[in-house]
Amino acid sequence: MQGREQPFSNPEVATIELSDDGARATLEITFDLQSPVGVFPWTIQQEWTGTDGEWMAEPRRSTNPFATPERE
Question: Comparing C-alpha atoms, which of 10, 58, 2 is closest to residue 33?
């Protein structure tokens, strides 16, 4: 199915690395990716920006390793 995300479980922030100015952070997040053939441990990095004391994740679509490539 197009646009369908794989379910996941057990998310955990493994590391947080702050920029020198403290306005940005890179988080390494681990989780278990559920697939039709089993559970796979997975790790992603996510960028966050701090503004006026509020932290916001930078939206970015990650590649689904189980997705079927689009055909033209």
Answer: 10
Question: Alpha-carbon distance 60 to 66, whole Å?
Answer: 18
Backbone torsions φ then ψ of 64, nearest 5 degrees:
-85, 115
Share of the chain above pLDDT 70, in %: 75
CB neighbours of 34 closer than 8 A, spacing ≥ 6?
6, 7, 8, 9
**pTM surpassing 0.70?**
no
Contact 13, 27 (CB under 8 A): yes
* DSSP secondary structure of 45-64: EEEEEEETTEEEEPP-PPP-
Kindly tell me the burial class for residue 7, based on how many C-beta atoms sit within 10 Å of its own C-beta (0-12, 13-18, 19 or more). Answer: exposed
Nearest-angstrom CA–CA distance, 60 and 51: 19
